[in-house]
Design brief:
Keywords: Membrane, Transmembrane, Transmembrane helix. Pfam families: HAAS (PF22564). By secondary structure, this protein is an all-alpha fold. The protein has a domain of about 110 residues. About 20% of the residues are buried.
Length: about 190
């Protein structure tokens, strides 16, 4: 593969990145070629030393999405980062997707419990409106107690969610570094 083929393939594979980011990356690789030529290497030798454009693009896209997730931990950015890291290799399907699904399940469960506890007085009042003969002050006061507990659970889940997102982004970064290091050794 020569320089033109390498750049055409890399440019095509980086189409999901913003134009400015893609241009910076291509400029960096242009500098690699200039340095390699000044050292007397051929284009083919430089391409061979850089590696496969497919693997380079997967690593660069994963790194970009991880940076976006660290900057703005929105749901979309986290999902794009997870998907990009999974794309680095089949092994990541199990190592990344399994913990991600588990954490999301636990967090959704915590949020569901907190919100349902907060809404419990509304459910008691709906029940009383439909079946007025079953009204009991115990049910009403118990649901009000659950509301207080639900508020504490929801506040706790807010902080747990923030902590888990930061921790999972660090885990994704670790995974990318591990894959990049593993690829260099192979």
């Amino acid at each position: 593969m020569n320089k033109e083929q390498f750049f055409a393939k890399l440019n095509d594979l980086l189409k999901r990145l913003p134009a400015a980011e893609k241009n910076d990356i291509l400029q960096d690789f242009q500098e690699h070629f200039e340095i390699g030529k000044s050292e007397g290497k051929t284009e083919e030798e430089i391409v061979a030393s850089l590696g496969s454009p497919q693997q380079i693009s997967k690593e660069l896209v994963a790194t970009y999405h991880l940076e976006q997730a660290e900057t703005s931990a929105s749901t979309g950015n986290i999902l794009r980062a997870v998907w990009a890291v999974i794309g680095l290799g089949f092994f990541n399907l199990v190592i990344v997707l399994g913990p991600f699904i588990g954490l999301v399940g636990v967090m959704l469960g915590g949020w569901a419990v907190g919100i349902s506890f907060i809404l419990s007085p509304v459910l008691v009042l709906i029940n009383v409106a439909v079946y007025p003969e079953v009204f009991s002050f115990y049910d009403l006061f118990f649901s009000i107690g659950l509301t207080g507990l639900g508020i504490f659970i929801t506040i706790g889940m807010y902080y747990v969610t923030r902590f888990v997102i930061k921790g999972f982004v660090k885990y994704l970064n670790y995974n990318v570094r591990l894959v990049k290091g593993g690829m260099k050794d192979a």
